[in-house]
Amino acid sequence: MKVIKFGGSSVGTAENIKRVKDIIIRQSDDVIVVISALDGITDRICRAAKMASEGDDNFNDELKSIETYHQEVIKSLFNGNLPVLEIVNELLDELKQILTGIKLV
Fold first, then answer.
1. Could you say which of 22, 40, 77, 89 has the lowest number of CB atoms within 10 Å?
2. Cα–Cα distance, 102 to 97 (Å, whole number)
């Protein structure tokens, strides 16, 4: 069994994600695939969390950029497939609620 991990720039664009898919499909052995956040997203979430913890409402701007990035990738990969978009939007809404709670505390 093989474990392969992709993250950062390897999943930073729709084109790169398609390459990752091709790599996975070509595997002849059993494989476990680990995929981390899109390129730069972890840093953006950390920035938004820091802003929220400091009471800075600008964390919403950072969240909006995260949302826009994901929407662009989804449109490219899935032609704006509504179920995929809905799932991602639910997760982003949950992140917003968490960060809003952090700001309020």
1. 22
2. 9
| Residues ≥6 apart with Cβ < 8 Å to 30 | 1, 2
- Taking the C-alpha atoms of residue 68 and residue 81, their distance in angstroms, rounded to an integer, is 15
What pLDDT, in 10s, does the model give residues 10-32? 999 999 999 999 999 999 999 99
pLDDT for the residue 78 = 87
Return the structure tokens found at 82: 């509504």
Q: Which residues, listed in sequence order, are joined to residue 31 by a DSSP beta bridge?
A: 2
Please state, as a whole number, how many other Cβ atoms lie within 10 Å of the Cβ of residue 59.
23
Burial 13-48 (b: 16+ CB within 10 A, else e): beebbeebeeeeeeeeeeeeeeeebbbebeebbeeb
